[in-house]
Structures are given as C-alpha cells and as structure tokens.
Amino acid sequence: MTHPDTAPQTLIEVRDLSLAFGRKVIQQNVSFDLKRGSIFAVMGGSGCGKSTLLKSMIGLLRPSSGQILVEQEDYWAQNNRRRTELNHRFGVLFQSAALWSSMTVGENVALPMEMFTKLQPEVIRRLVELKLGFVGMEQAIDLMPSEISGGMRKRAGLARAIALDPDILFFDEPSAGLDPITSARLDDLILSLRDGLGATIVIVSHELPSLFKIADDGIFLDAKTHTPIARGAPRDLRDHCTIPEVMAFMNREATIPSASEAKG
Amino acid sequence: MPEQTGQAEYAAVVLPHVMTQNQPPPPDGPASGTPAHAAWSLETQTGTPVLRLSGSWDVAHGGMAPFPADGLQDAPRGQTLQIDTSQITNWDSAFVAFLWDVKQAAGHAGLEFDPTSLPDGAQRLLALLPREPAQPPAPKTNTDALLTRVGDATLQALNETGTVACMAAETTQGAAKTLTGKSGMRWKDLATDLWNAGPSALLIVGVVNFLVGAILAFVGLIELRRFAAEIYVANLVGIACAREISAIMTAIIMAGRTGGAYAARISTMLGNEEIDALEVFGIPVSSYIILPSILSLSLMMPLLYIYGTLIAILGGFVVAMSMMSASAVGYLTTTFDGVALHEFVFGFVKSFFFASFIALAACRVGLKAGRSAADVGIAATRAVVIGIVGIIAMDAIFAVIANALDI
C-alpha cells in the first residue's frame, strides 16, 4: 500500500486525445481524469473505439494527437524504456485472456515476476499460489491453458494481471462469454481486488448490470460523431442522462428515441 | 516461555516484547528513509497468542517472511490468535501471502484466526482465499508396460494409416468429381492455392536449382577433366537433375514452403473453431480445404519440376561455358541427346507423387493438431519433417522400382 493521503487524487489524465487508423478517425476530443481508487467504465456501442482507447492507454497504439498523463508524466512522450517501466504499474486482462499457450497457468502468472523482480523461485511460487488463490484457481496451477474452460482462463488472466501488484488494472470485456453467476462473482472479485490491492480500475464493458454495480465513473463514446458524449457513473447516466443515444444504451432499447421524445 | 521469531536461525528463547528483525540490518544501521524489513514475533506465554508484525511488507522490499506450518503448535488450543499490525508501514500481496500461511498454521494448531484487527483491504483479500491451498494433482506418470506401449503405438500407426488412406481416397474421389463440376469446391480457393503453390514459388525453386546445377557441373568438370571427358558434364548434369536432383530439391522446397503453410493454416483454423463451423454447416472439410490444397500442389509441382530441371541445366551450362572450351550449341546438343525423354517422364511422375504426399501429410497433421498457438508451431514443424523424410523414402522406393522395370 502506498500512502493514499499524500498521493495526488488524479492518477491518469487524458487530454484531447484523438485516435485514428491512418486517415480513419476512431475517436477525437477524448478528455477525462481517472481518479485514484475509482472504477472507470468505458462505454459505447460496438465499434465505437472503446478497445482502441484502452489500447492507447496501455501502450499498444500511439494516439494521433493529445496526451495521456500518468501522474503528470506524458506517457507517449517517454522513450520505450520508460514506457515499459510505467507499464509495470499496469495490469491488463485481455478480452480472450491471452494466456501464453506454451506455459502452464502457474508459469503464466510467474513470468512477469521472474522477469521484473529479484524474488527467489520459492517466494515466486508462493505468490503465484496466492494470486491464483485470489481468483479461486489455485488447483489449476500446473494445468495448460488449453486444458481449462473459458471462464477459468479469464480468471487465470486476472491472476496474471495482478502478478506485479499493479496500481492500475485494465479490463477489456471481463464478463464477455461468462455465465451470469460467474460474471457476478467476477464483479465481487474486482471490488475486492480494488479495495484489497488499492488499485484503480479501467473497465471496457457492455455488461450493464455489472457496470451499474461496480463502476463509479465513466465515459460514453459515440460511434457516429466519434466523440465522447457523456461522462459520469453508469448508474447516474441511466437515471439522469437525457441524451437519446445514452438513454437507449443504458436502458437496452432497440431504437434510439428521437430528441423531441426524449425531452418530452 | 515459548517464543518464536521470523528468523529460523534464532530459534533460541528470546525475551517477550523484543522485536526481532527478520533480516539483520547492514552494519552501519539502516539508512534513514529506507523502510524497515518485514519482521514478526510471536508471544504464546501469556495465554492468548499474539503475533506482532512490523516493517515494510511489500514485494519490492523483499517483505516475504515465511511462516512455518507448525509455528503455532506451542499455543494452547482453542484460543484466538491476536494479530498486531500497528507497526507495519507498507503492505501488498506479500503480507497477504504471510497471513494466509498464518491462517493455515492456526487451523492446524486448533486456534481461532481473527482477521478483524487487520487492515480492511487485507481482510477482503484474505476472504477470497481458500482455507487450505488445494493440492495440485500428482503429475501423470507413464507406467504402462512396454508391451502395452508397443501395442498402443501399433494401433495408433494402423489407425493413422487408415485415416490418411481415407483422406487420399476422398481427395481422389473429389478430384474426379471436380472434373464433372460436382465436388462443391470453390474455384476461387483453388485459384488462390494454385497461385501460392506455383508461380509464387518460381523464384526460390529457380535459384536453388540453378545453384545445384552449377555445383554439379563444377564438381563434374574437375573430375572428368582428368579423363579428358569434359563434354560428358552435360550428360551428368542433365541426367542427374532430370532423374533425381531437381525432383527432390523442388519437393523439399515445397515441403518446407507450402506443406508447412498448409499445416499452420489448418491448425489455426482449428483453433479459431473455423473447422467446427464448417462441420456444423455440413460443409465437408475435405472438399473445402483439403481438396484445393492437394490438387493445387499436385498440379503445380510437376510443372515446377520441369522448370527446375531446365534452370539446373542452365546453371550447369553457365559454369561449363566459363570453364571449358566447348561451343554453346555443342553443349546443349549433348545435353538433349544424352537425356532421354523417359528421364523427364520419370521425374515428372515422381514429382506428382511427392506433391500429393506432402499436401496430404500436411493437411492431416494440421487437422490432428491441438488448438493453441504452440500447437500450430508443432504442426508446422511436424508437417515439414514428415514431408522431407517421406520424399526421401519415396524416392528410394522409386529407385528400386525403376531398377526392376529397367527405366
């Protein structure tokens, strides 16, 4: 635990970010603050650029303009080495878990620790058991990723994401492909890890019940205008937002009400 | 007065309330600003056992003190273990790992573990963990008797032979149907595969065969010069390349290039559930993937062989022209007088069989592969190895047949 009292409240600041593939603009004018200890939801319809935004925050895609400030440090202005150092403070759970298929589950979790810490092998083994224990996967430590189910792979991916005790956890569609019970348990797990590890969490998801339950801040990206159109916690957006697209999304409506209906 | 500390070597009795450093500080004392090392001490003599923790319990500062599994055996049973964490400065998962050990040891010693005095975050994390770490299943050992293993291997080999034979039969059937336009194969796939197996391989086949022809001519010239039989180098290069070398070299190149690609592509499709999707729709995998692959390689490789042979002869010609005093026309005439047409036919037929074998083996290996990225690599390697070994073995069989038939 670092000292939360002395640390600044804003962990990541995104300023006027534009994302594009070549000349095709995905999102522009994206600005938001990521508060320490919050669970931040990135919402929006399919193809609006949620995952692309996530990719630019974890160093996989250079934004075409704008800044991402990690504790006042311009992330994309750093050289590769410094960026990799910053990345050690991030833990990422990929959409398909992305476990390395040639290693056992335990080796997957152990690899970052072997590469970036000077811990003894038996200490690493103990920590791997612990991380897998957090996600209820300690019995699968010696199995290969191909031998376990999709939900288990996700949990193992989460154990790997928290291997280096990261400050910030990024989740790309954590509950995609999970049954409702597993998905609800994952929500509890995310809350426990946030409180336990003191991590800040960025979550890209479509899973509305889960977003209403855990997220306390967020941004809504619009696919048509390629800009964010709403900010705030998902449950507040559901209850108070009057923007038709956001209302339709939050209430799972098949058609977007016209502006006049929304006002009336 | 039972007393234990975090340092195993200090098993001697120490006074209560003495906080012992887990690791001895450096001789000049800890520098100001560096957090103290993680340390713990245990008091069991007052009735309620108390575990006192101090220092910085995080991974970065090596704060991972092991707690012995029998560390709480001396405490009276049925008591509640008190944990005093007021002296710790920092903690992360190393701290939770230690507490997990303590909780297990408390369970073994019949003590109550009371987490309420711990920091909130640690309580939440500890609640996620199971009471006992599950024992991972014992590693599987192969204890079958030798006879069983030999039997298994034999059955597997027979099974595999049968499967490959079925695939070959299906492909032949499919090829026959293609002639009448009823195979269901998409012509676009065949065109793509034909392009990949043929024209796009011209450069590498050409370069390799040119150099092989040149090397043969060079070595041949030096030896034949001693007998003043230099002109026979034309026959040497021509016959060797047409009968054996161009056919084998081309087949080996294609086994590495196209066979490996087939196996990798099919096993990746397997991993992406593309093959499953085909099966559910009832689209036969044989006509959709395997038939165009095998057909295209079988059609293209004999042509590549002819091209390769001509290039090899050209390679020999270039070296011969630069090293001996014969006319270009004379050399070429000798070549085509010396190499009978049936040599080409022999090589052509061999190439066809090599190609069918490479494609069939690669497709089979791909379909049999596992579903992960590592398995794709294994499948590609295996396809190339089987392809090359098979080519050489088949060539030996062809040589025996040719000898028997006096070709």
TrEMBL record, chain A:
Membrane spanning residue stretches: none
Single GO molecular function: ATP binding
Record-linked SMART domains: AAA
Superkingdom of source: Bacteria
InterPro entries to which the protein is assigned, alphabetical: AAA+_ATPase, ABC_transporter-like_ATP-bd, ABC_transporter-like_CS, P-loop_NTPase
Keyword tags: ATP-binding, Nucleotide-binding, Transport
Pfam families assigned: ABC_tran
PROSITE patterns registered for this protein in UniProt: ABC_TRANSPORTER_1 (PS00211), ABC_TRANSPORTER_2 (PS50893)
Limits of the ABC transporter domain: 12-248
Protein name: ABC transporter
UniProtKB/TrEMBL annotation, chain B:
SUPFAM superfamilies listed in its UniProt record: SpoIIaa-like
Keyword vocabulary terms for this entry: Membrane, Transmembrane, Transmembrane helix
N-terminal signal peptide: none
Heme keyword on record: no
Keyword Transmembrane helix: yes
GO cellular component terms, A-Z: ATP-binding cassette (ABC) transporter complex
Alphabetized GO MF terms: phospholipid transporter activity
Positions of transmembrane segments: 201-221, 233-255, 275-297, 304-324, 344-367, 379-405
InterPro entries recorded: Permease_MalE, STAS_dom_sf
PANTHER family: ABC TRANSPORTER PERMEASE, ABC TRANSPORTER PERMEASE PROTEIN-RELATED
UniProt-recorded name of the protein: ABC transporter
Source organism (scientific name): Acetobacter orientalis
